[in-house]
Amino acid sequence: MSNTGGVVPETMRAVHLTGYGGIEKLVYREDVATPQPQNGEVLIKVGACGLNNTDVNLRTRWYHRSVNESLSEQVALTGAKGAGAEEEQGNASWNQESIVFPRIQGAAIAGRIVAVGPSVDAGRVGERVLVDPQVRDLSLPLRAQLIAYLGGDRDGGFAEYAVVPAANAYPLSSSLTDAELATFPTSYDTAEEMLVRARLSEGETVVITGAAGGVGTALIQLAHIRKARVIAIAGKSKEERIRELGAHAFVPREVDNLRDAVEKIVGPQGVDVVADVVGGPMFGDLLKLLRRGGRYSTAGAIAGPVQPLDLRDLIYKDLEMYGITCPTPETFAQVVGYVESGQLRPLVDKVFDLSDLREAQGELVKRAHVGKLVVVP
């Protein structure tokens, strides 16, 4: 290990996920061994790490295929029902693989490289970086390259230090704080990939669900960059803040008839793109809102993953549907470029100390925030 970025302690503060279940499975410790970068890896001193639904999904075992309930506050605090026994390790991550405990979660890392492993240029020590959480095998087919996810399949950033592949640490120049930078990974690359795959372009209309969350607020800004017309769906109390981000129209999710509310805005022609991060019962209406040849892109189903599909909408309207799990390296690089050019606005709703991660996750699932929650070590 090459280390010219200051003294790296042998132990560090971190939060261990000790198993599947409720929020009590998150255990704060001050005696965790500091990881060492291996061949092709770098050691990052974590400046901040953003929270994401994937942290809660994995802990509660919501990814298990036997689960068919929304990611409610109760589920997030106590664990998902019907997810199998604790000792059944498989089928509990996004890719249906086993998780090894204890695990350090946290995918959205901003910080600075303090050491490098063999084969990595020692000149990278000292770089300020934003971390792509997707660890890929680029020899695999394009949509099957994701082999590990930070904070799930390997340790992440809810700690003072984290080891990542050198290729995943993107150097950047920015006046933003680490807490602000940590709002971008996971949320913004997912959102960018959703719009890239759906080919959203200038003058088109996009409906964005879950518009107040991390991915939703990212979608609004990225659609605005593309000069598209944005119809945002979120809790009615968040309308003013969402319009400030660039939404042209707003529909409260509490409305009695979502489809009618959107159709009153767009008229009979329908919308070009739906960017959905919620799923649940509104899924069928979202497909019916699309014009013929429209595109549906999804990266989440926290309101319920198993929903009926009227195949006549898909077939006779010639729709395209895209599921997003693995944004490409080019997509992440594009987000970094937007950040450096100042085209994206970081939305930090609240910052928590690492020792308060339980409280932070509890706040996340209340869905009262706009933008992102972040922890700092």
From TrEMBL:
Pfam (any one): ADH_N
Superkingdom field: Bacteria
InterPro entries per UniProt: ADH-like_C, ADH-like_N, ER, GroES-like_sf, NAD(P)-bd_dom_sf, Zn-ADH-like_protein
All residue ranges annotated as the Enoyl reductase (ER) domain in the record: 21-375
GO MF annotations, alphabetized: oxidoreductase activity
Protein name, per record: Alcohol dehydrogenase zinc-binding domain protein
Upper taxonomic lineage: Bacteria, Pseudomonadati, Pseudomonadota, Betaproteobacteria, Burkholderiales
